[in-house]
Specification:
Blueprint lengths: L1 H11 L2 H8 L1 H18 L1 H4 L41 H37 L1 H15 L3 H16 L1 H6 L1 H12 L1 H15 L3 H8 L4 H9 L4 H24 L11 H7 L10 H28 L8
Helix pairs in contact: 2-15, 3-5, 3-15, 5-6, 5-9, 5-10, 5-13, 5-14, 6-10, 7-9, 10-13, 11-12, 13-14, 13-15, 14-15
Length: 311
């Protein structure tokens, strides 16, 4: 009890919370992001309809406008319906959840790969560092989208469209995760090069601790602040990558809502007047990515002592 109390007390007195309460932009971004996450997580409970339940979808309800448009609008569908007759509000809630899952797990994979490679390169140096960093340079020479398009096209050709759609969410996590690990690796390597020259690392080496223990238990905890910042930005990038791939038809299928697949499904109807099928999910994507990026900018400023502002 005393441990949890002291931990809570330390958090209440921390610089992180102090600067957060002073930054209105960060508070606003955090509130928006939290609302969107809660809405996405609770989609099965809060969504008016289940977009996966074919029995509840009527094709005769397709492309109905939002309720404020009047005319053919149906009060059951607050944001209208898409070309398949699905409720837009429900598909956006489910689609946001899918996009967040892909973004979070892709960044988790990126961080695991990048941290492991960056630690090894920075700590051992020499040929190991040279090889791993040249590997990172080669990876960075290819754009994330280009790598994702090539790999997605390959798997779609090998597995077939139906099989690809069944495992699309897993493949997107792997593709986006593998494409972006150098960002973490280069940052961790730079931090390790600075940390390994400090006395606490030399003391651990003198005591006979192995390299793996020194890296994980002594060096890594002191390299985490920049990792948190990169992870925040990379979540936004991963969500955008998923949206771009789904829009190109190489990501989530239209039958499985994600923000990218929703934008793609209504694109051909955009000029015919059914703007809400594309525009509303697009606005949700913009707001979600903007909120994450604003939080990342604030976190970068707070965790970097050189950027602290006197308040």
């Amino acid at each position: 009890m005393s441990t949890s109390t002291s931990a809570w007390q330390r958090f209440r007195n921390s610089d992180l919370l102090f600067y957060f309460k002073k930054d209105k932009v960060a508070i606003g971004a955090a509130i928006i992001f939290l609302i969107m996450v809660i809405a996405a997580v609770t989609a099965p409970l809060t969504a008016p309809f289940n977009p996966y339940d074919l029995a509840s979808i009527d094709v005769m309800d397709s492309t109905l406008p939002p309720v404020w448009q009047g005319g053919e609008a149906d009060e059951r569908f607050l944001l209208g319906t898409d070309n398949q007759g699905r409720d837009m509000l429900s598909t956006i809630l489910y689609g946001t959840r899918t996009s967040l899952i892909i973004g979070l797990f892709a960044v988790l994979l990126q961080s695991v790969l990048g941290i492991a490679i960056g630690l090894a390169a920075g700590y051992y140096g020499g040929r190991i560092e040279s090889f791993l960093m040249r590997l990172a340079d080669v990876q960075l020479s290819f754009s994330t989208l280009m790598v994702a398009i090539v790999v997605s096209t390959f798997f779609q050709a090998k597995l077939g469209t139906e099989a690809f759609h069944e495992v699309a969410i897993y493949l997107l996590v792997i593709i986006i995760g593998i494409s972006e690990w150098p960002q973490f690796a280069r940052t961790i390597r730079a931090s390790v090069l600075a940390e390994k020259e400090k006395e606490y690392v030399q003391a651990a080496q003198v005591m006979g601790f192995g390299g793996l223990r020194i890296m994980l238990r002594h060096i890594l905890p002191n390299c985490l602040p920049p990792i948190f910042v990169i992870a925040t930005v990379q979540v936004a990038n991963a969500i955008m990558s998923e949206a771009a791939l789904s829009f190109l038809g190489l990501g989530m299928p239209e039958t499985t809502p994600s923000l990218g697949s929703l934008i793609r499904s209504g694109f051909e109807y955009l000029l015919s007047g059914s703007w809400w099928i594309t525009i509303i999910p697009g606005l949700v994507l913009v707001v979600l990515v903007l909120a994450i990026n604003l939080l990342g900018d604030w976190l970068r400023d707070v965790l970097n002592p050189k950027l602290y502002k006197e308040i």
